[in-house]
Write a sequence for this structure.
């Protein structure tokens, strides 16, 4: 007894549409209907555009958090806002359900990135070659620790290239990551219907 099955052929909305048919699928809509049918293929698999209110809320909250870091830095005369923290703010406010955006990943990830940066800088100096190695080490550490957070790799690079004093930099980095997490937690409770942040704490 044969178990061969008839192969399935995938059909698409446009397969049965004759592009030369000026009447179109319904006989009256013509090219406009054909364009609507082909649109999913053109649009790709990118995520849907968020609602204007949701996008405004996320962008405003992220910007406010970063401005808060700048204000703290101005008050204590220390550069608190570094590029990796801007990337972290974008993650926690605009993609709050991703593993990369959870508090465990944000806080511990940056601390592991800092550890990788200082370790590599001590062993190999402050060259761009060492910075690339530090980013790889940070990626390995965050992967093993189950704290995926891509901006942490950038933190390692910043440390190797700029050599900030660890006694000042690490406490400020820790405080900044905690502030980002708390602002995201607060912002998610302000707008009704917003995804609750965090998805998990640890």
């Amino acid at each position: 007894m044969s178990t061969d099955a008839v192969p399935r052929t995938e059909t698409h909305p446009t397969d049965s549409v004759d592009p030369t048919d000026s009447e179109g699928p319904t006989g009256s809509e013509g090219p406009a209907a054909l364009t609507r049918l082909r649109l999913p293929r053109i649009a790709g698999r990118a995520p849907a555009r968020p609602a204007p209110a949701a996008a405004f809320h996320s962008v405003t909250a992220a910007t406010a958090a970063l401005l808060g870091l700048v204000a703290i830095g101005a008050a204590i005369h220390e550069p608190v806002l570094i590029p990796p923290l801007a990337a972290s703010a974008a993650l926690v406010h605009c993609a709050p359900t991703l593993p990369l955006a959870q508090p465990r990943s944000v806080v511990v990830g940056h601390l592991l990135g800092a550890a990788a940066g200082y370790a590599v800088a001590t062993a190999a100096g402050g060259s761009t070659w060492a910075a690339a190695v530090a980013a790889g080490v940070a990626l390995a550490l965050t992967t093993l620790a189950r704290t995926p957070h891509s901006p942490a790799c950038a933190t390692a690079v910043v440390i190797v290239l700029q050599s900030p004093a660890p006694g000042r930099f690490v406490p400020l980095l820790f405080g900044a990551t905690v502030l980002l997490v708390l602002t995201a937690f607060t912002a998610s409770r302000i707008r009704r219907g917003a995804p609750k942040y965090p998805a998990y704490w640890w």
Observations:
- The CA atoms of residues 48 and 172 lie 36 Å apart.
- Helices lie at 31-43, 52-76, 83-94, 103-124, 128-144, 151-162, 166-190.
